[in-house]
Amino acid sequence: MTEILLGAAFVVLLSVLAGLWRVLRGPRRADRLMAAQLLCTGGIAALLLVAGAYGDGAILDVALLLALLGAFTSVAFVMAARLVGPR
């Protein structure tokens, strides 16, 4: 069962790599933010799968922290966009 969960985590991380291209080459700032949110969500999913494979509670804490940082990133982006204006 551990191998299946780790394999699924690897597949999730591979699919998130496609979003990394959009973060680096996004035509607009909003595209880059949404891709960064995809990276955050994929990272959380991979961490949860790894935590399930190893039964480690500390990895769950890291996944929760990553979810919190992802939410704060979105709020900071919206606040900065209001100050700077549309682009």
Q: Short summary of the structure?
A:
The protein has 87 residues and is mainly alpha-helical. Helices cover 90% and strands 0% of the residues. It has one domain.
Task: Explain this structure.
This protein is mostly helical. It has one domain (1-84). It contains three helices and no strands. α1 (2-25) packs antiparallel against α2 and α2 (29-54) packs antiparallel against α3. The longest helix is centred in the last third of the chain and has 28 residues, at 57-84.
Assembly state (oligomeric): single chain
Low-confidence sequence ranges: none
**Quick one: biggest sheet?**
none
Residues in helix, %: over 70%
Count the domains.
Answer: 1
The mean pLDDT is 88
Structural class estimated from helices and strands: mainly alpha
The backbone outline, from C-alpha atoms, is elongated
State the separation between the terminal residues, measured CA to CA: 48 Å
Residue fraction in strands = under 5%
Radius of gyration: 15 Å
Taken in chain order, the helices and strands follow as HHH
* Separate helix tally: 3
How are the secondary structure elements laid out?
Layout: H1 2-25, H2 29-54, H3 57-84
Helix pairs in contact: 1-2, 2-3
